[in-house]
Design goal:
Blueprint: H1 2-36, H2 40-57, H3 60-63, E1 72-74, E2 77-79, E3 83-85, H4 96-100, E4 106-112, E5 125-128, E6 133-136, H5 145-154, H6 156-159, E7 164-168, H7 179-190, E8 196-200, H8 215-236, E9 242-246, H9 252-264, E10 269-272, E11 293-296, H10 300-314, E12 320-323, H11 329-338, E13 342-345, H12 347-352, H13 355-367
Parallel strand pairs: 3-4, 3-13, 4-7, 7-8, 8-9, 9-10, 10-12, 12-13
Antiparallel strand pairs: 1-2, 5-6, 6-11
Helix pairs in contact: 7-8, 8-9, 9-10, 10-11, 11-13
Length: 372
């Protein structure tokens, strides 16, 4: 009787695994079709709630493909794999544990500001399915840094050693000449709860924000941030690295100047890149004329070119997180070959679903074993 039961279970388990594989392959295209019939921002909210529900129900393991380990050390942190979620998908840290269950090696939440703000008027999120692109002009909509910290402290992922980046910015009502004040407030508040802190000066959706990428403004901001980081390291007895997030809409002179500033102020890393204002790759397509930052496949070449030039300018002195247009494993591999140590995606996750995490992780596990 026992032997028959064992044999029966042995037959059933592979069948369950096989059915789960078929379910995973079939499910996301159907889910995406449903979501793409809705307003993009409404769909985003429902989708994120679904990720958390899937995790809470315990069903995630049946439809999420296991992720191949590929430990990598960057900024003094050991990442279980080099595949990260880019900022913007979970602005307030409402879905940390659900997203972590998908196999990401690290998560970046935010952008967060000192005070809650509504962001720009809706509609402010637009898909360009023909090009696998997304345009957003969200405007740092978020519940404020204190709400984010409540969510971080309630999540299990950081408690279990998961790497959590917190992306910080300035409120829209703060004059650009006082921007450093907002960054310093956020830096101080999130310091003890973050694995690393991303400094977002490259969103195109907050008026004049990209002015902070220019020489004197950038020097002043980085000097203040670095001084406060040193004070906080002493206060908390631990060093939390900072990475600067830059735009793809930079010329060679600007890239060189930013690289010099990063070195001069001993920053710990750089994230290349944010969304683009260019519409060259989507001209004439529906929604292409909407204002805001363009992400997804259309920004891949521009962001990778900036990454490569930045890598050359930095000559290995700072690690780079490559982000922008990763829609598959080969895209991620190209980012690594261009000089990135880690990668992130957001729009690719919307178009490809959770399987993109395991696909990119598997590709990079093979790529990063080979000499570069």
């Amino acid at each position: 009787m026992v032997a028959k039961t064992i044999v029966k279970i042995g037959v059933q388990l592979p069948t369950i695994r096989c059915d789960a594989l078929k379910l995973r392959v079939m499910l996301y295209p159907l889910v995406r079709k449903f979501f793409f019939a809705l307003d993009a921002e409404t769909a985003h909210g429902i989708g994120m709630s679904g990720v958390s529900l899937l995790n809470a129900s315990g069903l995630a393991g049946l439809i999420i493909k296991p992720v191949k380990p590929c430990p990598v050390e960057v900024m003094g942190l050991t990442f279980p794999n080099p595949v990260g979620l880019a900022a913007g998908l979970d602005k307030n840290g409402d879905h940390i544990d659900g997203l972590a269950r998908l196999g990401f090696g690290f998560l970046e939440i935010g952008t967060i500001t000192p005070r809650p703000q509504e962001g720009n008027p809706r509609p402010r999120l637009f898909r360009i399915p023909e090009a696998q692109g997304i345009i957003n002009r969200m405007g740092f909509n978020n519940g404020g840094v204190d709400r984010l910290l409540e969510n971080v402290r309630a999540a299990q992922f950081p408690k279990k050693g998961g790497i959590l980046g917190i992306n910080i910015g300035k409120n829209a009502t703060t004059p650009i000449e006082n921007a450093a004040d907002d960054y310093l407030i956020c830096l101080e508040k999130v310091y003890n709860d973050a694995s690393y802190i991303a400094i977002n000066i490259s969103s195109p959706n907050t008026k004049n924000l990209r002015e902070l990428q220019k020489d004197d403004a950038l020097d002043d901001l980085l000097a203040q941030l670095k001084a406060r980081q040193e004070q906080l390291a002493e206060k908390h007895g631990k060093y939390v690295p900072m990475a600067l997030k830059i735009a793809p809409d930079l010329d060679d002179v600007q890239i060189s100047a930013i690289a010099d500033a990063l070195r001069r102020h001993r920053m710990d890393g750089v994230i290349a890149t944010n969304t683009t204002l260019s519409r060259d790759t989507v001209e004439g397509l529906p929604n292409a004329s909407e204002t805001g930052g363009l992400s997804g496949a259309p920004v891949f070449r521009k962001s990778t070119d900036v990454l490569k030039k930045l890598s050359t300018a930095l000559a290995g002195e700072l690690p780079i997180i490559g982000v922008g247009g990763i829609m598959g494993g080969e895209d991620a591999a190209e980012k690594i070959h261009a000089g990135a140590s880690l990668v992130q995606f957001y729009s690719g996750f919307i178009y490809r679903g959770p399987d993109l995490v395991s696909e990119v992780a598997e590709t990079l596990a093979n790529v990063m074993r080979k000499p570069r």
